[in-house]
Amino acid sequence: MRGLEVHFPIRKGVLLERPVGAVRAVDGVDLDVERGTTFGLVGESGCGKSTLGRAILRLVEPTAGTVRFDGIDVASLRPEPLRRLRARMQMVFQDPLSSLDPRQNVESILVEPLRTHRVATGKDARRRARELLDVVGLPAAAAARYPHEFSGGQRQRIGIARALALNPELIVADEPVSALDVSIQAQVVNLLEELQKEFGLTYLVIAHDLAVVRHISETIGVMYLGRIVEQAPSDELYATPRHPYTIALMSAVPIPDPEVEDRRERILLRGDLPSPANPPSGCRFHTRCPFRQPTRCHDEDPALRELGPGHAVACHWAEQVATGEIRPHPTAVPS
To answer: Beta-carbon neighbour count of residue 146 at 10 Å?
Structure first.
């Protein structure tokens, strides 16, 4: 992705024809996902993660920028070439119940993409549906049942099976475990890892659970108000976060050691996420940043710059924050 933008127009008037602004859900994102790897995308609700994932597959139309998949510019494809390409790119949606047709049984759900893309029909399609159920750990008898008859974890497995039906190369997984119990989350995450090893899949995993993303991802991008503010290898990001927003997120992750938990500094972000229809000037995080400075932060928009191999940060003061030269404001740290 290069310069990817997704803006939703705000309209007023009797017929809602007069544009008066736009919601900048995704506002200039550059991103690379290497084949066969997992890229984790994290950030709080409303930062544009899901919109970014949908824009990759053109489930929402990009306003500007390019999306290249295996050298093909997805953003400029006409409907028929796009339909053919989508066999190679699939999505696992956040809510497995609402993304599965309640009027179709599981076999029909899994057979539909095979028929749509003319991969298999009749007995071959039904056999493939049962193979997919076996791959995701569900019995063949599940084919005759309907989505409401399954648990949340089982429904998510059905969603994964549907995504695998056409042997894709890229899967965008939007909050694949957020609606599940912790024990079921582990099962689904382990399943995704096993499928990646078996089929050589590439994942873009969108989540707000930092522990899940760390477990499954080689590289993590942190998103805030439509932009990537930090990107680094998974272990490095958790060991040495550089952006103030990432530092605040990491300080909220519980540590299973009471002594360490009591000693560590926790940073609380004040205020709400600004409106993407009217983002702040300069650094978009400066209105909530516990490390903000009177110079540059308010007026100058920081570029995403590389501070080390594969570690990029969009912050004017990232080096000083990392070394402790700049400390968080007292009001940002609870007593």
So the answer is: 15
Q: Which amino acid is at 61?
A: E
User: CA neighbours within 13 Å on the CB side: how many for 15?
Assistant: 1
Q: What is the pLDDT of residues 86-119, one digit of tens each?
A: 999 999 998 888 889 999 999 999 999 999 999 9
Residue type (1 letter), 227: R
Low-confidence residues in the chain, pLDDT < 50: 334-335
Based on its alpha-carbon atoms, the radius of gyration of the chain, rounded to whole angstroms, reads 22
The token pair at 302 is 């920081």
Residue (of 185, 176, 179, 180) closest to 204 by Cα position:
176
CB atoms within 10 A of CB 268: 14
Write down the pLDDT at residue 15. 72
Could you tell me if 302 and 283 are in contact, meaning their C-beta atoms sit under 8 angstroms apart?
yes
Contacts with 74 (C-beta within 8 Å, 6 or more apart), sequence order: 56, 57, 58, 67, 68, 82, 85, 89
Query: In this structure, which amino acid lies at residue 313?
Result: V
Token pair, residue 131, equals 């193979």
Interacting residues of 222 by C-beta distance below 8 A, sequence separation 6+: 42, 43, 228, 229, 230, 231, 237, 243, 245, 246, 249
H helices of the chain, in order, are 49-56, 79-85, 106-116, 122-135, 152-164, 182-199, 210-216, 234-239, 244-251, 258-263, 318-323
Res 318: pLDDT: 93
- The two three-digit tokens of residue 45, written as one number: 């609700």
Q: Which long-range contacts (CB under 8 A, 24 or more apart) does 234-239 make?
A: 234/40, 236/308, 236/310, 236/311, 237/311, 238/210, 238/214
Which amino acid type is present at position 326? I
User: In sequence order, which ranges of 4-121 are alpha helices (DSSP H)?
Assistant: 49-56, 79-85, 106-116
